[in-house]
Amino acid sequence: MEYKELATAARGSMGPWCKACPVCDGRACGSHMPGPGSKGAGTVAARNYAAWQEVRVRMDTIHEAYEADTSVELFGRRLSVPVMVGPLGDVKLHYGDKWEMEDYNSCILHAAAKAGSLAWTGDGMVAAIHESAVHDIGELGGCGIPTIKPWNLETVMRKLELALAARPVAVAMDIDAAGLPFLKGFQPPAGPKSVPELRRVADACHTHGTPFVLKGIMGVRAARKAAEAGADAIVVSNHGGRVQDGVPATAEVLPAIAREVGDGLKILVDGGIRSGLDVFRALALGANACLVCRPFAVVTYGAGAEGVSDYFAQLARELKDTMEMCGARTVADIDADVLA
Ligand SMILES: Cc1cc2nc3c(=O)[nH]c(=O)nc-3n(C[C@H](O)[C@H](O)[C@H](O)COP(=O)(O)O)c2cc1C
């Protein structure tokens, strides 16, 4: 099924906030939190989506016929497509009773691996969610990326130890998560981390040969500090607008960040990426790969694992089509030159 049909199928089983729109553009969910909306005025998710639509690509169909290769190398693995399922915490609270968090993570991990890619898992307020996610990742031979919140360092190190034992492809921290309204005053506390603190986390990952990713980087200054802390990759992300209002779209800040640290770090990006064309745009602006979060929740509510694989197939099809229309044979050919 196409995304629009999967969204239609999801509509009956959604909670009150997600409208399972034909295009997940952040407008209908607005500022609803709980729910998949954004903080404050609730406009940042919509801004993310809209910014990609302003990026124009340059057609070039004067080349020999070929089948574009959408695969990409990341963290020592070859992904069939430069898209991964983004981490999502507390799916039941935000999207409705149909899915328990543990089952949702298990579903996206297995379905993404089957599609030749990876899913990232969110770190909930309940310890069992992270434990169950890393158990599934271990069973999948490390195919998945657990994301740990910036709790106090003692909690981070405990959760990290558990994650590293599963030998995941990488471990991430959503360094921006302290801005989440429901983490305010929570025990253990979550908050900013200094470069030396993050270096301890990165060092522990590297001891196991596991890359460390910092998710939630929105400027050159923070990107430089991520590099200094020993991160191997960053996700240019504003958490879909859920942690701070009034911030730019990720597409707006991506090129400068990629120019500054792209030689040393892998650059990932998320926020409003909804089609294979959007993936192409993100790569052209300097990303190595993308994360897509909210739409994967919608397709999982619509059709479970089948929904996830159908949406992966659609993104791959659209990316391949755009690559062939713009003269890119491989993902490495997608650079600033393919922009109009
Ligand atoms: C309901 C909901 C829960 C989320 N939970 C997490 C989380 O636990 N950890 C995390 O790193 N990001 C979390 N995110 C942020 C997403 O991973 C992603 O950065 C953001 O939604 C932007 O991508 P999108 O526009 O494709 O949804 C969450 C987003 C939503 C909508």
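^ flavin mononucleotide complex. Residues 294-325 form the longest helix (32 residues). The first strand starts at residue 72 and ends at 74.
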